[in-house]
Specification:
single chain, about 70 residues, mainly alpha, Helix Hairpins, 3 helices, about 0% strand, elongated, DUF910 family protein, YqgQ-like_sf, YqgQ-like
């Protein structure tokens, strides 16, 4: 799992589709859903950690982009 799209496909396998309209909020909601899947024992630890790592990186990137837009 290397991209946000991969995480979306993981969630899609369980019928979870996320679109709030704000990319940052979408990523945060994906983090919550992935954590719940792991805690429910539906996904393995390795898959969980990979997904969270991707989501954290995307969250940081998106946060930086939004801050730059706000400063323009």
């Amino acid at each position: 799992m290397e991209t946000l799209y991969d995480v979306q496909q993981l969630l899609k396998r369980f019928g979870i589709f996320i679109y709030v309209g704000n990319r940052l909020w979408d990523i945060e909601l994906m983090m919550i859903e992935v954590k719940q899947l792991y805690e429910a024992g539906v996904i393995e630890q390795r898959e969980y950690l990979n997904a969270i790592m991707v989501l954290r990186a995307e969250h940081q990137l998106e946060q930086t982009i939004q801050e730059e837009r706000a400063n323009e």
